[in-house]
Amino acid sequence: MKKYLAATGLLLMSFQVNQDDVFEAYTQKIPGTEVTFDLTPIPAGSFLMGSNDQQFPDQNPAHEVKIDAFWIGVHEVTWDAFELFLDKHYEESMTEGGLEERVDGLTRPSLPYLDMTFGMGKEGKPAVGMTQYGALQFCHWLYLKTGIFYRIPTEAEWEYAARAGSKERFFFGDDASKLSEFAWTKANSEGSTQPVGKKKPNAWGLFDVYGNVQEWTMDLYEPDFYTRSGKDNPLNKADKLYPHVVRGGSFKTAEDQIGSAYRSPSDPAWKRIDPQIPKSQWWFPEAPFIGLRIVRPLIPPSPEEIQAYYNQEPIADY
């Protein structure tokens, strides 16, 4: 039985409507629109993060990590939702009843001077090219629209969800010849992003965990972080603009660079052709391969913590 909570646009796949009692997969509707996206619950637990593969020292050492429960997007965020955030006039035209004042006043991305689809199209495809700050502010917009705290995952949450209980290189084992069944990579993408959800999911129902687009995490990238990482819900808190951790590989990534433990850093070269000074805080005009997947913690932070998360000041990029 489905229960629709009009105040939040939440479609629960359960007969219960008390949020404290429900930890089920659900569909989030963006109020006033027909746009929806699906989230699935990820149970709390422990896992071995990273690997001991000496070929990739930034994955070393494999270490036990404990993660609290959260929901995560079944798919990467698509242009259907991101474009509503990007363009206030477009959102207003697509929203029944118009925009609430708190949404209307939200700071939005500057409209890009380039085609940020990079000629790859939008229909059903992941949104690409946004900075980590842009990904964070998209989550802020979702919060203002729905009243629900969404954010990008920590690196540990991402890997825990990607592994779905597995300990091998891939969530389906170690047989790299099967990767094309699960991922769009350099080998089979024909140089473009693809509509989400066309490949097989992992055991927890997540699509495009590998390939299609790389996904932002909250963490600062440091190659040796695992040598000193905490055990409980670790986060390498970022206090500088570069590099942040992106995960999963993309449609441009070679198959030998993909796996649950593979880590990649963001790169200022992704803004090399940006003529602005300072450079855009919203866009990477040379990163058609970067996107996002969102999470919602089962136990939300305090209102003060939520505001601190969303109201982080962007760091100027020269």
Task: Explain what you see.
The protein has a single domain, classed as paralog of FGE (formylglycine-generating enzyme). 16% of the residues lie in helices and 16% in strands. The chain has helices at 79-86, 88-94, 101-104, 132-146, 155-163, 303-310; strands spanning 3-5, 10-12, 26-29, 36-42, 45-49, 63-67, 70-73, 214-220, 244-247, 263-265, 290-291, 295-297. The strands form three sheets. It has a six-stranded antiparallel β-sheet with strand order 1-2-3-4-7-12, with no helix packed on it. β3 (26-29) and β4 form a beta hairpin. Residues 1-19 have low confidence and may be disordered.
Key traits:
alpha+beta, 6 helices, paralog of FGE (formylglycine-generating enzyme), 6-stranded antiparallel beta sheet, 318 residues, 12 strands, 16% helix, 4-stranded mixed beta sheet
Backbone CA Rg: 19 Å
Which fold does the CATH topology refer to?
A: paralog of FGE (formylglycine-generating enzyme)
Can you summarize the main beta sheet? 6 strands, antiparallel
Structural class: alpha+beta
What is the element string, with H for helices and E for strands?
EEEEEEEHHHHHEEEEEH
Strand content: 15-25%
Please state the overall shape, judged from the principal axes of the Cα atoms: globular
CATH superfamily: paralog of FGE (formylglycine-generating enzyme)
Oligomer: single chain
Distance between the termini: 53 Å
Which regions contain 5 or more consecutive residues with pLDDT less than 50? 1-19
CATH architecture group name: Alpha-Beta Complex
